[in-house]
Design goal:
444 residues, alpha/beta, Alkaline Phosphatase, subunit A, 4-stranded antiparallel β-sheet, 31% helix, 17% strand, elongated
Length: 444
């Protein structure tokens, strides 16, 4: 309780500080931003008439310093719309960055940053070997969540662990405190100082995690307002000298725009003779970690029960489809890491449940196969994608907040984030597993 009180006190203090992006009145309007070659990207800034210009790197070059700002849960369509309206104009048009399935932060950033696999899909996960749940809010408070998801080690700065524990309950305070601190770090870096967090003078990787809660609780309108503030912070940073560096913005997945309700997994399993349980001791027991309110479910079953459990779940309203890994029979030709097939079922019992339109379910077959080929250290036996308007997770958390958007499912609305660079014109579509070369990071 003492830690919680200290966290709240810190947030209250930061929230009462001057708002992030402290442009003086009229300051941004006096900054000259010039697109010399008419390609839609700013080529140089002149902060004041008497100041020397800050010139952007030429397209395709390799500047000596790199800044990566990873912004959680920003859908491509929202970022692209803001670019069309004249925001984020220091960057070439954004790519669609397609998250793995399930479209969850631990899975997404592991693929993007090419780090060691996480222990679980979320910070609360099930370990079949120990037949127990591991992690959760306690690990968030103690900082042990970084052991669960090693991708956090790649960030030079992210919100302190105590902020993250309260972000869904105090999203406005956390996002303001987070943006203020990111602005301070960026401005120090722009003025030629070393990496303000002391890891590498040439690379700065920052993580803005509060946007996930902003999208879940506030929806698209709240995300839009916050991104406009982020754009102002970046504009100030670029004009102050950061425009000379490689700067890459990206998000790990999208965010649906549909208010959603809790999927009744227990009833779905009960109707088919299974039991939602905390352990997997009995043959008919099914374990499903319930943590964040997301559009996917990870199920742990007894051997041989995968298809029956999948069919039980997709029979319940709100389920889109379910998939499971099928091992080759003994003596089959071909063995090893990739010697498996994927079973799939949907509510309509379609002949091919994964035969779906690319624009609604981008890269679906590849992402489903990847989910079983490169899973977390504790892989689920069945993965369920929910329809828009439904989520699964903590019932206690569900009662505490109203969800206006989520992610986790295989649908494009949940899965497609963005990547935008001020140096490179990136491809229209990028799979998360192919994103790293576009970040310009050498020492990670």
């Amino acid at each position: 309780m003492r830690r919680a009180a200290l966290a709240l006190a810190a947030l209250a203090t930061l929230a009462s500080s001057p708002a992030a992006c402290r442009w003086a009145p009229g300051e941004r309007s006096r900054v000259v931003e010039v697109d010399e070659d008419g390609d839609g990207r700013i080529d140089f800034w002149r902060p004041r008439p008497e100041a020397s210009e800050v010139r952007a790197p030429a397209q395709g070059t390799d500047p000596p310093r790199t800044v990566v700002l990873a912004i959680d849960a920003i859908p491509y369509e929202l970022f692209a719309e803001l670019q069309r309206e004249g925001r984020f104009k220091a960057f070439f048009p954004a790519s669609r960055l397609v998250a793995p399935f399930p479209s969850l932060t631990n899975i997404g950033f592991t693929a993007i940053l090419r780090t060691r696999p996480p222990s679980g899909y979320e910070d609360l996960y099930f370990d079949p070997a120990r037949d127990a749940f591991i992690g959760g809010v306690r690990d968030r408070l103690t900082g042990e969540y970084k052991d669960i998801a090693p991708f956090h080690e790649q960030f030079d700065w992210e919100e302190p662990r105590l902020w993250g524990a309260f972000v869904f309950y105090l999203p406005d305070r956390v996002r303001e405190a987070e943006l203020l601190r990111i602005e301070e770090i960026l401005m120090q870096f722009a003025r030629g100082g070393a990496d303000p967090v002391g890891r590498n003078d040439a690379e700065l990787v920052l993580y803005m995690g509060s946007t996930d809660a902003v999208g879940h609780v506030g929806g698209r309108e709240a995300l839009t307002k916050h991104l406009l503030r982020v754009d102002d912070v970046l504009a100030r940073f670029l004009a102050a000298g950061g425009g000379r560096d490689r700067v890459v913005l990206l998000s790990d997945h999208g965010m649906s725009e549909t208010p959603s309700r809790l999927f009744d997994l227990e009833t779905a399993l009960d109707r088919a003779g299974f039991r939602l349980a905390a352990t997997g001791k009995e043959t008919r027991d099914v374990v499903a970690p319930a943590y964040g309110l997301v559009g996917s479910i990870q199920l742990f079953t007894s051997p041989g029960q995968e298809e029956a459990v999948a069919r039980a779940v997709v029979a319940q309203k709100g389920a889109d489809f379910a998939v499971w890994r099928e091992e080759p029979p003994p003596g089959a030709v071909g063995t090893g890491h990739d010697a498996f097939s994927v079973g799939a079922v949907d509510a309509a019992d379609s002949p091919d449940p994964l035969d779906r339109p690319f624009d609604t379910y981008p890269m679906l077959r590849e992402r489903v196969r990847q989910a079983f080929a490169d899973p977390p250290l504790n892989p689920a036996h069945v993965l369920v994608s929910l329809e828009d308007g439904w989520h699964y997770g903590s019932a206690l958390f569900d009662r505490a907040v109203e969800i206006r958007g989520t992610h986790g499912s295989a649908r494009g609305s949940s899965s497609v984030g963005f990547l935008a660079s001020n140096v490179d014109r990136t491809p229209a579509w990028i799979a998360a597993t192919d994103a790293f070369p576009w970040l310009g990071l050498d020492s990670r």
